[in-house]
Structure formats: C-alpha cells, structure tokens
Amino acid sequence: MPAASATRRAAGELERAVLALLWSAGEPLMPTAIQHRLGGGLAQSTVATTLLRLVAKGLADRAPHGRGFAYRPLQRAEQHAAIQMIDFLRRGDRPDDVLRHFARALPPGHREVLRAALTVAG
Fold it and tell me: How far is residue 49's CA from residue 78's CA, in Å, rounded to a whole number?
C-alpha cells in the first residue's frame, strides 16, 4: 500500500475535524489557521475545498477577511448532533421503536435530562 493511502482519512473525517476546530475556536478562522491546527501536512487547497463543502451543506458560513475568507460554524455542536439524530430516526422504517430502544439504552442520568427536556418542550 502506498504511503499516501496509509495516511488518507476516512470519508467525512476531515469535515468532522474541521467542524470541531470551528466549534472550539470561538471566532471565525482562516483556512491557513485551520490547516496549521490540523497538522498532518494537508494542502491548503484540501482545507479550502473542505470548507467550501461545509458551506454548501449549510454547516459553515464565510465572510471576507483581509485578502481571503474566514469561516464560522452555522450551528453549535449540540444542534448539529441533534439534527443528525433526527435525520437518522426519519430514515428508519419504525422510528418510534428506534426511539424507544434509544431511551431504554440511555444511562439513568441521561434519561432524567431527556425527561426534563420533554417536560419543558411539551
């Protein structure tokens, strides 16, 4: 196996890593800052392409900054995770059963958080 293949990231892994950096930064980041924080010898074009994909998916936004663009997430990490969970439920044939199994599998502390959230939302 060639060396480049051995260090290649799994599909979506780079997007997740970039989103995690955007979430933790607390301010918009330039592609070069993201490239440096990710390390691993990524090309700037790879980082820029990943950022444009996140913008196209509605997960990030970009604004002019100096001679380039700075990027920021459009959702908090918690919102993103919740949307993914809802999308996953909608894909199944029996979302009610999946939700029941999920709730039963939660640790007791998380069940209490869920109950409280449902009380407030209801």
Answer: 24
Amino acid letter for position 86: I
6, 7, 8, 12: CA torsion to nearest 10: 130
Residues 98 and 92: their CA atoms lie apart, in Å, by: 8
The 10s digit of each residue's pLDDT in 30-49 is 999 999 999 878 999 999 99
3-state secondary structure of 57: coil
What distance in Å separates the CA atoms of residue 20 and residue 86, rounded to the nearest whole number? 20
| Higher local confidence (pLDDT), 4 or 97 | 97
Alpha helices in 75-107, H assignment, sequence order: 77-91, 95-105
CA distance 38 to 106: 33
- Of residues 18, 39, 13, 40, the one with CA closest to residue 29: 18
Give the three-state DSSP class for 75.
Answer: coil
